[in-house]
Amino acid sequence: MVVKSYSNMYDVQVEDDILTCRVRGKFKKTSTAVMGGDQVEVTLTEPGRGVIEEVLPRRSVLTRPPVANVDQAVVVFSCRQPAVSLRTLDRLLVCVEEAGLDVILCLNKVDLASREEVESLRRIYAGLGYPFVHCNASDGSGIDELKSHLEGRISVLAGESGVGKSTLINQLVRGANLATREVSRRAERGRHTTRNVELLRLDPSGYVVDTPGFSYLELKMMEPGDLAYYFPEMRELSVECRFDDCLHQQEPDCAVKAAVEGGRIAQSRYDSYLSFLEEIQDYVRNRYR
Ligand SMILES: Nc1nc2c(ncn2[C@@H]2O[C@H](COP(=O)(O)OP(=O)(O)O)[C@@H](O)[C@H]2O)c(=O)[nH]1
Ligand SMILES: [Mg+2]
Ligand SMILES: [Zn+2]
Question: How remote is the CA of residue 245 from the centroid of ligand 3, in Å?
Fold first, then answer.
């Protein structure tokens, strides 16, 4: 597996060894020909060095940062510094769902939150079926539980700047020393432009990507009818609506609206849904103008 990409060179993990590899000339010189996370076939050229001959089919592809075969996103948020915006959180969840990744929710900085705040967030989001972990990356509490969700999988961390993603990685990965706070923002920007990605190995198994996934939260390419599919609490209900193509907006006999009124779907989630739907409908209207 490619665990690190630099300009035209790659570190490939083969069992417990790391080989420094170039690629065969037949590969196009683009940032996506060989990506971090790729499973590859390598020919050994000399001790510690090799050539990448083939890239095996990818299970998933993220473009910013460019990384293949990611299984899941840890969506990190906090109650203070910065205060979570449920709209932004829901938007991120939709983007992660659309990318086909599993979601782990991580409420960080619990030392800055009241028990009531933690519980009301847990009530909304654990109810959707997402694993919900709360932790304090500063003192390490909750990290073991988070780690148990990362075993054997490739994970990216997503979430607003300042929520503690780099601090979490430093807790999760032995020897990791990612820059945190202000320093990191400049450093992260630099890394995005060079498009270098490193997959950090977790103990006992699994990898976490060292740059945040999902920096652009655009809904542009979505179809209005697809949106409800990315809200797990609406996914199954849609079949009970009177109309097959119900958008759960103004239509009569809508099972989703009934669930909101009955308190089985959180009002904030439905409000997010309606707001994203209008945004997508605006894009679609402009597309055909
Ligand atoms: N109080 C508190 N501060 C934290 C916690 N986790 C991270 N921080 C601080 O939050 C700031 C931003 O963290 P950082 O990891 O750089 O966030 P990132 O932008 O998401 O990578 C740093 O000053 C961290 O020390 C936490 O659990 N509690
Ligand atoms: Mg950071
Ligand atoms: Zn409906």
Answer: 8
